[in-house]
Specification:
The complex is a heterodimer of chains A (230) and B (233). With 230 residues, chain A is an all-alpha fold. Helix content of chain A is 78%, strand content 0%. Chain A has a single domain (7-221), classed as MetI-like fold, CATH 1.10.3720. Chain A is built from 8 helices and no strands. Chain B has 233 residues and is an all-alpha fold. Chain B is flat, with a radius of gyration of 20 Å. Classes of the chains: A mainly alpha (230), B mainly alpha (233). The interface between A and B is large, with 49 and 46 residues.
């Protein structure tokens, strides 16, 4: 395929896409851990807050949320500041906005994954841990977290796959990731099909590589466990 | 705002309808044991599920321009020039790929004994599908299907990028003109939220109706009651 010397742009875009995806995933995992802790906590207000978070986020399209955060937040902050008699000009960085918004959205999905993983831990082990006199912190660190990852991994892999695809949306806020780079290259060369097809294959490449990686990670976290005999 | 809402709903219904009609025969091919049948369908679903919807929309809407001559010769250019047609085509192809996999799960969940019993009674393949497999497969697939409808409904917001004035598109234009950015966007958010949970409620009602005979001690639709929307992928 003749890319007329624009191939490097796709490559640069791919790097940004991977960077956005990895950073957003880190945000999502952190929010997911906090969210699942809140959902399972004894405090009613924490549970309500977590419930509102997951309900609202899953009911609104990602694109609209990105637009709200990128265009809505500065205006909101500016008008609040104006009301208080300040004058500030706020310009959000597209990379940070993209990472935070996507991380925030998929944090809601990660919350559900982690909640399921916490609940999958054998309650007998938690009882045993408190019986031998472990503090809550020790229990979390030694019993809950190490096992939780094993239960959470398949679900997190799923979140990652969808998250990678969602990064294409941050191209609407002018971040130079794979989609926008292909768009720019296409405008210059007038070869839309060629460039978008290349972008498609690059996304497919990420998907395939993630699947392979997930397979090995799952095998690694399940080491030492007897596979079920069917 | 209202006209945008109408377009959003119109796109959702049309794409789900076309997508489902396309997915049913493909799902039958997908569960075939012959590689000639299932391999191409698997390739199709892998492609559409493994890439972002936005790329697919661009590939069809902008990409068709590269084959303008060919399409003009075929008389199809008038269709591909329209963002509306491209949007429905992409959304339908995309959702069909997900529905194929959902239906495959449903078909494979039908107990083998029933299929064997059907064959033993001398049913033909098509009669077996019509009387034994599909009625149950659709019921098994319904929770996942409702999820897919919600995801498609939300995905329609992407058509605003190819100039269509759906709910998101209208919100963007009004926000740009009036500068009441967050009020407009929040209104759009509330509308999406309201419709999403209306769809969730409608499907739940439908599921309870369909699984009436399963209720009781075993609790047919309890498992997915807890999570209204789970991730598709």
């Amino acid at each position: 395929m003749d890319l007329q010397g624009y191939g490097w742009m796709l490559w640069a875009g791919l790097e940004v896409t991977v960077m956005v995806a990895v950073s957003a995933m880190a945000v999502a995992v952190c929010l997911g851990l906090i969210g699942s802790w809140a959902k399972l906590s004894k405090s009613t207000s924490a549970r309500t807050a977590a419930r509102i978070y997951t309900t609202v986020i899953r009911g609104i399209p990602e694109l609209l949320l990105i637009l709200v955060v990128y265009y809505g937040t500065p205006t909101l902050i500016q008008s609040v500041a104006e009301g208080l008699g300040f004058e500030i000009v706020l310009d959000l960085n597209p990379f940070a906005t993209g990472v935070i918004t996507i991380g925030f959205i998929y944090g809601a999905f990660a919350t559900e994954v982690f909640r399921g993983a916490f609940l999958a831990i054998d309650p007998g082990q938690i009882e045993a841990a408190s019986a031998v006199g472990m503090s809550r912190q020790q229990m979390t660190r030694r019993i809950i977290l190490p096992q939780m990852w094993r239960f959470a991994l398949p679900g997190l892999g799923n979140v990652w796959m969808v998250l990678v695809k969602a990064t294409a949306l941050v191209s609407v806020i002018q971040l130079d990731e794979l989609m926008r780079m292909s768009f720019v290259a296409m405008s210059a060369t007038k070869l839309p099909f060629t460039f978008f097809l290349c972008a498609t294959f690059l996304y497919l490449g990420i998907t395939i590589m993630s699947q392979v990686l997930q397979h090995y990670l799952e095998a690694w976290t399940n080491r030492g466990l007897k596979p079920a005999k069917v | 705002m209202l006209s945008g809402l109408v377009l959003t709903i119109e796109l959702t219904v049309l794409s789900i309808l076309c997508g489902t009609l396309l997915a049913i025969p493909l799902a039958v091919l997908r569960v075939s044991t012959l590689p000639v049948f299932w391999m191409p369908v698997y390739g199709y679903t892998f492609f559409f599920r493994g890439t972002p919807l936005l790329v697919q929309i661009f590939l069809i809407y902008y990409g068709s321009g590269q084959f303008r001559g060919v399409l003009q010769d075929l008389g199809l250019w008038a269709l591909f020039r329209e963002p509306y047609f491209c949007a429905v085509l992409t959304l339908a192809l995309n959702t069909a790929a997900y529905i194929v996999e959902i239906l495959r799960g449903g078909i494979q969940a039908v107990p083998t004994g029933q299929i064997e019993a059907g064959l033993a009674c001398g049913m033909s393949r098509s009669r077996l599908y019509q009387r034994v497999i599909f009625p149950q497969a659709f019921r098994f697939a319904l929770p996942a299907f409702s999820n897919e409808v919600i995801f498609l409904f939300q995905s329609t917001s992407l058509v605003s990028i190819i100039t269509l004035l759906d709910l998101t598109g209208v919100a963007r234009i009004i926000a740009a003109r009036t500068l009441d950015v967050y009020e407009i966007y929040l209104t759009a958010c509330l509308l999406y939220l309201g419709i999403t949970y209306t769809i969730v409620g409608a499907f739940r009602f439908f599921e309870v109706r369909l699984s009436g005979h399963l209720r009781g001690s075993s609790g047919g639709s309890e498992a997915h009651d807890k999570q209204a929307i789970v991730l598709r992928g």
